[in-house]
Amino acid sequence: MFPIALILVALAGGLYLLNQKQGGILGDELLAGAPGEEPAQNAQGKVARADASSRKESSDKKPGKKAATQPPPVPESAKETAAGAAYWMVAPELPGVTPDSVRAAYRSKIDPSWASVHITAPDESSIPSGEEPYYAVFVHEDGGDWKAEKSIRADEPDYAANEVVPLEGKAPKDLLQYLYERNVFAAKVPEPKQLDIDRDALPDAGPALFPKPEPILEGVPDSERGQVEAAARKAAERVGEYGGIAGIYAQDLDEGYSYGVRPDETFFTASVIKIPVMVAVYRKVDEGELKFSQEVEIKDEDWAAGAGWLQWKDAGTKQTVGDLLVLMMTQSDNVATNALVRTVGGPDHINEVARSLGAKNTLLYQKLSSERAAVPSLDNRSTPRDMGLMLEKIATNKAASPKSCGYMRDLMHTDELDWWLDAGLPQDVDSANKAGWLYKVYNDMGIVNADGRRYVVSIMTKYGPEDVNEGELLIEDLSRAVWEGQAEEAPEVAPEG
Fold this sequence. Notes:
The protein has two domains: 4-29 and 213-485, 3-Layer(aba) Sandwich (Beta-lactamase), CATH 3.40.710; 76-201, no CATH class. Helix content is 28%, strand content 17%. The protein contains twelve helices and 15 strands. The chain has helices at residues 4-19, 82-90, 160-163, 173-177, 222-241, 274-286, 321-330, 334-344, 347-356, 384-395, 402-413, 468-485, and strands at 102-107, 114-119, 134-142, 145-154, 193-194, 215-218, 245-252, 258-261, 267-268, 295-297, 318-320, 381-382, 432-438, 441-450, 453-462. It has a six-stranded antiparallel beta sheet with strand order 6-8-7-15-14-13. A hairpin with a 2-residue loop joins strand 3 (134-142) and strand 4. Helix 5 (222-241) runs antiparallel to helix 12 (468-485) and helix 7 crosses helix 8. The longest helix is centred in the middle third of the chain and has 20 residues, at 222-241.
């Protein structure tokens, strides 16, 4: 019998050849104030400063636990109205949002406990129809208090059915069928009630603040400090040049030290959330609860647009667990992912697995799709550190059985669609990686083991340029900086002249 890893690798190659024309995956610095300012904290208690761990850049010991910060109480103005609840959630995270960004609010007639608030963001291109895109924030009233629960970017009037996938049937139909004026003629339910907006009564929220891009070193020994510090400074400079918010975390697998820039900032995960889903599946196989040959029926609830060809298959199609794994990790198939999440026990189980891997700030918040929320707090989310810690467990055979961890690394090595991280490595070096992207979100992370270098690196971005190539170049440059920082000897600098 052939090893399962080889079977999966062979299948991945076949699937890649069949689907190589599909293109890339769809997972698809905006500091408040003037550059260099140190703004006061916003209403949510967030300050645009370096992470607390940067106060001590290097240590012979691993850092201790950070003191937990308690969020400030939610003001009444953020609970009394739908617009107030949406603004309180979005303004502290989405750059450039002000009270004037709150464009409209509608209350459902089908279920008056739901409302949608339309919020615009600066520096976003018009959609092909010429309409101004906006974020629809869906808020729910419970016990007289409104709270934001879901969000989508309304930018595809011709494919509105794709956009509502993350809402999982929560929002009433009238709020969905009237997202676009041009689609009103096709609505099958009465129009929702438009609400008055008192912008002067909105809560004191925002502005969006982020840690400054400063290098953070943790537990780096003196013998490595010089070159690691140089790599971290180079990464910080590149992150500072990027036209968005980026973060990076790297960990040496032999020495255990780590370094990065904004390692604890929260980002949209896009398709990299599929890493803990993969771990959850392999653990179920280890425990005897699943088999790679076991068939899973694809259901209507699994459907999503974006990457992968299962979206073109009818509900009722059956795929093996092994096939779904390959599709999820090598083709970034969203339908395969949603089917696997359902099979292993749902989002709560995936989040439990992530926590067991040390990822305390990672959350599978909703099903995988091609859509993005206004802010990470209303979407699948994680941090560069969390993703790096999960990769470290896979690299060191601690995520599941050693055999399963080996299969996971093999599977990630067959991912031919994600090349951003590899672009910063020598031509003969290939990482075991997973990437993901959505609108203005570009992520890539992986395990590197070559030329005496053993490390994991996680790069995440948000609110970046619309040009995917700029995100790709950033990841390439940061990957190269880490590779050079992990060298046994610092790279020689050519003499001037």
